[in-house]
Amino acid sequence: MKKLLFIIVLLLSCVCTMSAQSVVALAGQVMTKDGEPVIGATVQVKGQPGTGVITDADGHFRLNNLKTGQTVTFSYIGYVTINISVKKNDERMRVVLSEDVKSTDEVVVVGQGTQRKISVVGAITTVSTKDLTTPATSVANMLGGRVPGIISVLRTGEPGNDFSQFWIRGISTFGANAGALVLIDGVEGNINDLDPEDIESFSVLKDASATAVYGTRGANGVIIVTTKKGSAGKLSINAKANVGYSYSPRMPEYLRAYDYARLANEAAASREMDPIFNDVDLALFKNGLDPDLHPDVDWHNTILRDHSWNQQAHLSASGGGQVARYYMSLGFINKEALMKQAKGVNPYSTNVNYRQYNFRANVDVNMTKSTILNLGLETTIVTQNYPGYGNSTDALWQAASNLTPITVPLRYSSGEYPAYGSDNNQISPYVLLNLTGYRNTYRNNTKIRVSIDQDLSKITKGLKASVLFNFDANSNINESRTKWPTLYYASQRKRDGSLDLIKKRDYQSQAYGNSVGADKKYYFEAHLNYDRVFGQDHRTSGLIHFYCEDYTNSANTTLLTAIPKRYVALSSRLTYSYKDTYFSEFNLGYTGSEAFEKGHRFGLFPAISGGWIPTQYEFVKKALPFLSYLKFRGSYGIVGNDRVSGSTRFPYLYLMGTGGSGPWNAGTGLTETQIGSNNLRWEKATKVNLGVDLKMFNEKFDMTVDFFRDVRSGIYQQRASTPAEMGLPSLPWANVGEMKSWGIDGHMSYKQDLGRDTYLVLRANFTQSKNKVTNWEETIKKYPYQRWTGVPYGIPRGLIALGLFKDDQEISESPRQQFESVVRPGDIKYKDVNGDGVINSDDIVPLKYSSVPQIQYGFAQEFNYKHWNVSVLFEGVARVNYMVGGTGYIPFINKETGNILTIVGDQRNRWTSRDISGDPATENPNAKFPRLSYGANNNNDQSSTFWLRDGSYLRLKYIQISYLLKKPWMQAIGMNSATISLIGDNLWIWDKGDKIFDPAQASGNGATYPLQRVFSLQVNVSF
Fold it and tell me: Terminal CA-to-CA distance of the chain, rounded, Å?
């Protein structure tokens, strides 16, 4: 009986199972990501040989009598096999096969096209887009410490201005156009307007071989960004949203009223002056009984919040089929500053706010089997808001650092608003923020791009042509609604006890002002590409490229400057390789410029490069089995630059205009306004690069190192040696400047698999860029060390400090310092550089390093365990200095104004006479601050090594902890996956300075918006 029951249950389960497995059919088309049909692809049921079909001439297939739960495989030679589980009847499938790319066939983006990575002999760094999808205001802020060859600095954390300035391989010219060229989809663009989520590929071109096809535009390196395009297949939707909590990790701390007043008395006593404040004043500052005349205001606390919130979102959709493919995206950034607007004062916002909106649409249409039409539309809209005074927050930070806690109260008890003077540095930051109205800015950039790619294989195999036209338009509107309250200052009371108010600024009712601007650029390029393999061993390629552009700006309002600025260039490239072992490349650029007179407007700029891969030899593979890949590269080339500093155009012309006439310059007549420089020629850069690419241990270890040298000649300068007796209205330009730069950059990485879905990746990169001015046009100097020639560009100059004077005897035995009539013990002692027994401006010399780092490096770690991922990035700089000093740092330099840092209040940090302190130990010879002065002290205030600080630092730049959520229930609602991330930016810093300000912006001495520490929660969802 039990056996019978068992058989009945088994039969019933089989019947149920058979009924659950519905019979369905699958049909559709197999294609590549470009929509081309895959002819002859195999489509079959997995595990059942002989049950498949072959796609027809249009890539179509059909399978009948399938059961749900079965798996169908799609395969074709040279493509990655994919498996699809049968779930339901579907007769309109689009199956997209991806090419199975071998390491030797991996493609990278180069100038005006792509090349197989193995054949690249120029210095090109490809950046993973994964490293560029973190929360950030700009892509430029992500480059420092991540990309070898990039030197970058970020000077402010103010929303809308917190964009890094960067140079490829450092600063290589002191002329105009020292920055890199940024190309977005082949067209010059603003990297700060680019949404990182839209990036498909990111390449940095660094040497002459890589940049030669861009002519003069590529003299300082090129960044090539390719945005995402649609791929054939079903609709794919991706969304990202994050919210960030932002605050200032380093803020200057200033003395409060009582300590400030005590220190002011010490400063006065140090110079044998009467006390600034009596005992009654000190008592009132301490107990706060007279807030009008003895206030104690913390201006930072008055105008600043503890934190601010930022938001960022991005939405994209892509897909398509055989005829057309599309990619569309929307992006949004919202950032508010830390300013604390007073409640109830204004019905409008006076806080700093930055909003950016991005829209992008890329559509590719197969007009024929050999013709593809590409349409691109990109729009960026930026709106910014500021307080009524100034176009940034600098005025607020300057006022907060300049107004002491005792200068003026927040508001007088009688209701009037205070000011010490009429200058913004002497006006309360509370007034500047809340009572001066507001300003807003609107900016729009729109690019419309049309290109056609034509396959000319019918003429000869490997031949392709393309043309591109781009229209680029910018517009901006700046509006201001400004006002001023009546401002007063009171230093005493009248006999009746009321305040004796003195008017410092008159009332101004609300006034409106605006300015508008616009510019447009037409850009056209055409190029012919040839890529062919002969007999499997010989590969050759060629490129002929032509471009021209026309630029107009509404700011140019004169007859001469209103002429459209135009450029035209023709360039070419020829490559050859043998057995993927020997490589050669020749580039030639022919570029025209308006800066030179007729007959000299075009320049010819060649570049040659070569490479060798010894690991292609069998004997090397056998002798060094651990060595997976080794390549040696070298390049030499000349590139040109025609950019003249400022707005100078047509510098070869002699210009006439109206001006003074007669012996006393009293009348009006015709005069020369510009002396023509008809001998101007191209500024030239001779670039040399030697590189090594290395992979070991089955490509687990990857390293690239490049050594480079850049020699500039013919840099444009105005002739400083022209004597004034010639009476020229302007100094002529000439190719007289010379400069050289050199250095090393590279990266290494190591990846170790630790099991299924578990791995560890270690990365590091390093850049060092040195430079030296080899000729600077200047007047004759008294001493050689006073010349700009022979020293690094941008290096600060000052006196060499030898410490502090110990006593009067040391002062009498030292060379006489002429900056101040009386020098006392505790004042700064300087070196007599020229040995003439006197310290004066003749002893000012070049100091150590500039404010732009010579060295920038980064190292990162990524650990992945199943659905968890942790990434960490450290970024650092070295060989960089900054100078401290001025208001807010040197105590009492302006007497009544200028805050005092709390570190000055610490007796261990300042030199104080034993006559004042009663303790000989306070005469500290190693003090950070010299003997105090109440007012400027021309001896101690000199720019010198005493105030020079080491700007090196190591920053814990970034930590991201992510979890990938991918569950079966998500498929039911159309969701593929979701990633939740917690991200920290600028988490910690180790530096050698005074640790008061962030070393990247410390030269601002507290008068700049501080760099922010940001914690973000981010969610990425794909459908």
Answer: 54
